[in-house]
Automatic annotation (TrEMBL):
SUPFAM superfamilies: RNI-like
The name this protein goes by in its record: F-box domain-containing protein
SMART domains (UniProt xref): LRR_CC
Domain of life: Eukaryota
InterPro entries: Leu-rich_rpt (IPR001611), Leu-rich_rpt_Cys-con_subtyp (IPR006553), LRR_dom_sf (IPR032675)
GO cellular component entries: SCF ubiquitin ligase complex
Signal sequence segment: none
GO BP terms in the entry: SCF-dependent proteasomal ubiquitin-dependent protein catabolic process
Length: 140
């Protein structure tokens, strides 16, 4: 397996067992997952040394997790941290500069269209509706 997407789930250290059986994993998407621990991040990054793309948007991770990712994921090219607010800029500056980090700047408290959730038209028999998608909940 080279791609694993487990978005919007309540994940604990059980993910460690999955990661141990996926040493060739290249792309891991865990956006909006909850119940992460630093141990979980450490083991995932150790078990999947070939990771190139890691998506952790809207996860409750902090500086320690970023340090583990930076130390263990030497092949990483892309790291998504969108909506992760517990990570300091000081720690991000120590991450390999070759890694593209996706993290919006909220310093001016202004949002651009790219910060909004994607809008998807849903076609029904009567009329079109717009749904704001979220891995945990869909509003119609």
């Amino acid at each position: 397996m080279v791609y694993l997407r487990l978005e919007g789930l309540k994940i604990s250290d059980a993910l460690i067992k999955i990661a141990r059986y996926c040493p060739k994993l290249l792309h891991l998407s865990l956006n909006s997952c909850i119940c992460f621990t630093n141990r979980c991040i450490t083991e995932i990054t150790r078990s999947c040394p070939k990771l190139k793309y890691l998506e952790l948007g809207d996860c409750s991770i902090g500086n320690e997790a970023i340090k583990k990712i930076a130390n263990n994921c030497t092949n990483l090219k892309y790291l998504s941290l969108k909506w992760c607010r517990r990570i300091s800029n000081k720690v991000l500056k120590k991450v390999n500069p070759k890694i593209k980090i996706k993290r919006p700047d909220y310093s001016d408290n202004e949002f651009s269209d790219s910060d909004l959730p994607s809008l998807i038209p849903i076609f029904t028999g009567r009329r079109n509706r717009i749904a704001i998608t979220n891995p945990l909940e869909t509003i119609i």
